[in-house]
# Entry
Amino acid sequence: MYISKIHINNFRNFKDKEIVFNDGVNVIIGHNNAGKTNLIKALSLVIDNEKPKRLYTDDFNKNVTLAELKSAPPKITISVTITKGEEETPDDLVTISNWLTKLDSSYEALLTYEFFLPEKKHEEYIKALSALTDETPTEIEKAWKLIKHEFIRYYGYKIWGGEITNQATADSESLQKIDFQFLDAIRDVERDMLTGRNTLLREVFDFFMDYEIKIDETKTPEIKYSEIKAKKESFSEQADVLIEDLSERIRAGKQEILSYAEKTGASFNNAKPTFEGSISENEMYSVLKLIVEYESGIKIPASHNGLGYNNLIFMSLLLAKMQVNADVDYLDNNAKVFTTLAIEEPEAHLHPAMQYKFLKFLNENKKEKKVRQIFVTTHSTHITSAVSLDEIICLHSENGETTIGYPNRVFPEEKNKKYVQRFLDATKSDMLFAQKILFVEGIAEQLLMSIFANYIGKSLEDNHVAVINVGGRYFDHFLHLFDSEKENTIHKKIVCITDRDPERKEKTRGNFKKCYPFEYNQDLATFDYQSNPSADRYLKDTHQNITFFSPETDKGKTLEYELLMSNPSLKLLLTDSITNKQELDDLMSEFVTTGSTVQNLLDKLRDSDANTRIKDSINLNTILDAEEKKKSIIASRYLNSVGKGENALELSYILAKNLEKKGTTDFIEFNVPQYIKNAIEELCQ
# Structure
């Protein structure tokens, strides 16, 4: 089950609004004071059993007329709809059975929080406000002051289960099955987590103690109980030895200490104070401190970490606690059934690369069912660029009116949505915070690099790599910032991926124009040749922190060309935006035909000036073997058929979807071009 929507009436900036949620991650964005925090607060009033429920005059929506206030006392109503989700547990329906409003294959239940003036005070209220007559801001302010001073103390709250007209109070036992954890933007994580004296850490310790035994599916509950009991007894025996040793060491000193007790009269009736004791595992937790150990072996207390690092640790501990709370074997009937996590502004104290990692962490916890539903409020473009449009909810407040937008619902066609989704990226300021940087020439490389990394079992996100599109060969402007061989630069690993871009011009006239790799240096009597001078600028191990990677000398060209040289028969690469899709399809089929020759592929080319040039150049080339020539024919036709931006958007989507099928028979093998593979491995080592 999941919270499918919330209806907020008369609470803070929400006059009368319904917000629809996703079954999973919900990223709530909006400008300051758009209502993000108020939305989470409204949610907590209904389902958070730990926080106070009482409200005050300032919690009412003030966008009301005097006539409305005079007609009836203001009331806050917040309704939460719980719906059957994709992932169900046997206890879901049992938990919400008393709140059901719809019972079929997709059941619904309703919980409603009301903050109201009791009926017996209504007449007194109407009489008190009747003296106010003018519909002016001053008179409305007087009305609110009257409510604050004379009536707010009479207000009470209820949480109803089911249709509100039935006025059936939601049973507390079922409400206790909901675990709502909220991390606000201003949190003291050092106070909350750093030692075993803290309740949160003690609960986590207690649950995960002897965890290797508790999760061993080869052992029966009886054997697990027996082994854990034996460990506890062994610990107690060892602790007794320590206590006895401590008592022995203080024996003489104890007599001196207690002599003062006798002199002050603390000893009487033949009774005198002494020292003894025992210690349990739970009591020993208090001596444990959270520390951070680096690869070098250096250990520092967590209190010496930055706030961002400690916030991440605290969030991980909180999720561990939620796992504890939901464990039936550990808590039996007290276990939580529905676990929800709300985090306000997780970007506080987190640099951009860590925000990506944090979102990935939350999604993994959702997939592993350690938390059922997640709510995140944020101002961070880095966070919104890391989630899908389906997960984003936009709040906007203007002139006292709050509106809600859902980006995933506004596109007339799916291809429009995919296009916008892929272009939602953060600004290039990312490079100042990331641990490593991958500079690329264009949008195609920018969109595809992370997916390529996943195909070779790497993760740019896990390695805190920012992919920055410089819009051409404009690497130098950025390299000045990071060249560690110069003073005052930012030292971090830099990798640049650039095209070969071979060119030629007639010796007697004209300018350099693009040419195919199989034309490069083939007619030195007629043409002058050149290629991208940056490609060999910083080869591997020639600079402290900067490395360039590009396609193979004399054989490479652009990313699109290299994709087909590495995957000459992969029809997965034929996106809808390709202009010569059928011709390429025929060429790929011919390539894998047994006994197919170079001439067979050339015969598949339709008549055109571009294809005539390919035919002539391939036949004149004396360096490439037959296999390389066949690949070159397909690669050159593919290059001439794609529009870089749109094709890259479609290709990134297709490759990402294919990767989701890895491990199944539907997965299609894809070869990442070698120079890109080398670049990614350089960054991820």
